[in-house]
Specification:
This protein has a single domain, classed as Rossmann fold (3-Layer(aba) Sandwich). The chain is about 30% helix and about 20% strand. The chain is built from six helices and eight strands; from the N terminus they run βββαβααβαββαβα. It has an eight-stranded mixed sheet, sandwiched between helices. β5, α4 and β6 form a beta-alpha-beta unit. The longest helix is centred in the middle third of the chain and has 17 residues. The chain is globular. The model has no long low-confidence stretch (mean pLDDT about 95).
């Protein structure tokens, strides 16, 4: 069952599992999208079928503007939005809460976890934008050494925001447990990812329970 979710500054859709496992996932979108992105909807439904309570939600910048990219100067507010979404799931009595996002949403989620190690039990980072396309000299990994939360990176082999070689090198900077699920032939949109959702679930659970 899916239902609209509105609580304080959190706006999104809540996916209720038929057979709850006590696990939960807060899932958000990239810079050019919103919580209704097809990838997020499909992933949320797959996780709900596996027993997760899933909240897919809009970041504050998207709540403020229906279209347009986020403002870099307001990124801290988006990270606060991540924390609020995770907190909302904890208030619904989830035993273990993961936080995840696609591209920009995943980056802000990971940064929020680096700032607050107790934020979540695990991270699901879809198409993490290691650097702008064709600009590997502008890495977005400065905070990786501060990341203490287990993290699963799901990345396409044709993603212009970072090659698989670059992702593997970046993961070596992270002191917490990490895993990389490579999607052959997929670009930044991860349109080929749904077939790998069972593997995503298995690997994320393994990271959290290790």
């Amino acid at each position: 069952m899916e239902s609209p979710f509105e609580q304080d500054s959190v706006h999104g859709v809540l996916h209720h599992p038929a057979q709850p496992t006590g696990e939960a996932l807060a899932l958000t979108h990239g810079a050019g999208s919103n919580c209704n992105a097809p990838l997020l909807v499909l992933l949320a439904r797959a996780f709900a079928e596996a027993g997760f309570l899933v909240l897919r939600y809009d970041l504050p910048f998207r709540q403020q503007r229906p279209k347009g990219p986020p403002f870099p100067a307001a990124a801290a507010r988006d990270r606060q939005g991540v924390a609020c979404a995770v907190s909302a799931l904890k208030e619904l009595h989830a035993d273990r809460v993961c936080a995840g996002g696609h591209s920009y949403g995943g980056r802000q989620t990971a940064m929020a976890a680096a700032e607050h190690a107790e934020l979540a039990d695990g991270l699901l980072l879809l198409s993490y934008p290691l650097h702008p396309p064709a600009k590997p000299d502008q890495p977005r990994t400065a905070f990786f050494p501060d990341l203490r939360t287990p993290a699963l990176f799901v990345h396409g082999s044709a993603d212009p925001f970072g090659s698989l070689v670059e992702v593997r090198a970046a993961l070596a900077l992270i002191p917490s447990r990490t895993d990389l699920l490579a999607i052959a032939g997929a670009g930044h949109d991860l349109i080929r990812a749904p077939a790998a959702f069972p593997d995503v679930l298995t690997r994320l659970r393994a990271l959290m329970l290790a």
